[in-house]
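Repro:
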Amino acid sequence: MTRLNSFHLPAESWPGDQNGPWVLDGPEARHLLKVLRAAPGERLRLFDGQGREGLFVLESAERGRALLTPESITALPLPQDRLVLALGWNKSSRRDWLLEKAVELGAWGLAFWRAERSQGEPPTAPKDSWQDKLVQAAKQCANPWLPQLAVIPGGIQGLAAFAQGFEQCYLCWEKAETRHLPAPGDLGRGRVLVVLGPEGGLEPVEADRLLEAGFRPLSLGPSVLRWETAALLCMGLAHLDRGSRP
């Protein structure tokens, strides 16, 4: 079966009535009409990034907008298993790459926080360019869920407060006195938060604060991993666990 092209229509743009009108505009419409040169009658997939997706037919185009007719629409239930990574801020050239992999591997969210050894200051809120990167990755891999992005204020205290409501909280720390390597089921089941420090690691006082708050220490093995490598490993373990179940 030929794979349909996917297009992102934000949740607020979905009509309340399935009968529409269904309109795709802006960059997504330009891609459909100008780049792909889609003709009336062609089928495509829409998704809102919040678990809703559907198959549509292009009816017509007017003034740079694509008018669509729905064939079927599906609203997926909220997943019970949701992995969020809290990442110590870095001036990393690999951030866009990590955003892409978060979509491909089904991470539920990425939250950035400022650690003592962070390089520079994180923005006060997620950037629009980050969201754009998530959308492009989701169009490629057909993930109906976009990871939720957050910037956590307040340093280690803010991070401890952010952790409330998770079923399991883990701290990946290279100096932790543990040999507990995470199994896929540790990270892939339930509402799980995993904290990773910035390049250069955490200060001992930061790690102690999280351990006192109930975080469980994890080791990712004897190698000193880069920020994005450690994050990819955690997301990959959770992805393997979800994929191993019927």
